[in-house]
Write a structure and sequence with these properties.
Strand order of the largest sheet: 1-2-3-4
Largest sheet: 4 strands, antiparallel
Order of helices and strands: HEEEEEEEEEEEEEEEE
Number of strands: 16
Shape: globular
Distance between the termini: 29 Å
Number of helices: 1
Length: about 200
């Protein structure tokens, strides 16, 4: 709100007009390449935050939810909710590099520093797919008691996500691929966003 902006040091320093039709989901910043990836229903857009150059349509997608930078910014993993798959693409050209089947409606995806694995959150499948980013193959599944959407890894072997339909937080051991704990979120209806601050 204007009042909030006036009471703080926060201010808008840049505006990017991407364009296109359909809904938007995650925006993901690559700290290595300084590129911002924004998922659109049918495509992925990329913004070079140094030069301001916009690639409105980097890669095709079908129900895109997240573009996760990998390999020092050379590769992206896209979750495609309408295809029930994760897709690897070249981060600069958008060229497809391979698909991995997932559970139903993959949404968020997290790269775990402790194991190197990618965890794809299947919102309608009530599970998490585990993918090896080197072989680009599935290596496991973690069943959940509800619908995960977004999450974060702490770098020490713990992954946090929420169950959107159960109003709860789940903590997962990324080495054993097991649920360690589930905590209800009192007075929280349909949580959909989660950010993990690790003090780095």
């Amino acid at each position: 709100s204007p009042a909030l902006a006036g009471d703080s040091d926060l201010r808008i320093i840049e505006t990017y007009k991407i364009g296109g039709t359909g809904g938007w989901d995650y925006a993901n910043f690559d700290t290595v390449t300084k590129r911002l990836y924004v998922t659109h229903g049918s495509s992925i857009a990329a913004i070079d935050t140094v030069t301001g150059a916009i690639t409105q349509h980097l890669a095709d997608a079908n129900g895109a939810h997240i573009a996760l930078p990998l390999d020092g910014g050379k590769t992206l993993l896209l979750t495609q909710g309408k295809l029930n798959q994760a897709t690897f693409v070249d981060a600069l050209t958008g060229a497809p590099l391979g698909n991995v089947p997932t559970g139903s409606k993959p949404d968020g995806a997290i790269s775990d520093p402790a194991t190197g694995a990618i965890f794809v959150l299947d919102n309608a499948g009530n599970e998490i797919d585990v993918i090896d980013p080197v072989t680009r193959r599935p290596t496991g599944k973690i069943p959940l008691s509800g619908a995960p959407e977004s999450g974060g890894a702490d770098g020490n072997g713990l992954l946090y996500t929420h169950l959107e339909d159960k109003n709860a937080i789940v903590i997962i051991d990324t080495k054993t691929l097991t649920v360690k704990a589930t905590y209800p979120l009192e007075d929280c209806e349909e949580p959909s966003g989660l950010a993990l601050m690790t003090g780095q």
